[in-house]
Amino acid sequence: CDSKLAAVLFTSELNKRYGRKGLRSVACNPGAVNSDIWRDEGRLLKWIFGKIYLTLEQGSTTSVAASIVDLPSEVLYLQPYALPSKSTPHKTSHPMFEMLGPYIGYRSEQPRVPENAKASAENLWIAAERLTQS
User: Fold this and answer.
1) Cα–Cα distance between 76 and 132 in angstroms, integer?
2) Collapsing DSSP states into helix, strand and coil, what is residue 105?
3) Stated pTM of the model
4) pLDDT reading at 7 higher than 70
5) Predicted local confidence at residue 98, as pLDDT
6) What is the distance between the alpha carbons of residues 40 and 46, in angstroms, rounded to a whole number?
7) Residue 51 contacts by C-beta under 8 Å, 6 or more apart in sequence?
8) CA pair distance 134, 131, nearest whole angstrom
9) Spatial CB neighbours of 60, under 8 Å, sequence gap ≥ 6
């Protein structure tokens, strides 16, 4: 969860700082992917993951779309699942649908972020600058 939140916050701050200069970033949620990361989980869990998790190809859809699709400028976040209902706003939908659900390819959504996201995004940027300066 922390790494996904950091990606969204960093994306938001990068767009805020450099969007007017032609640089654009989109955060991508690959979804729950049946990848080699689960190799040590045992045969039963690997079998279950194979039934409910996305394939490697499906998990790459959001990254590929962010790279090659002409997305509207306001798009900040892509995820691979259908939400429970088109009338259900993402912020009020159940967080489970950010991890599992009917695969649809990619869909633009507003990411779920804490109330203090703006300050967190700025602080993350400052920390990243400090850590990467030589």
Assistant:
1) 24
2) strand
3) 0.79
4) yes
5) 66
6) 9
7) none
8) 8
9) 30
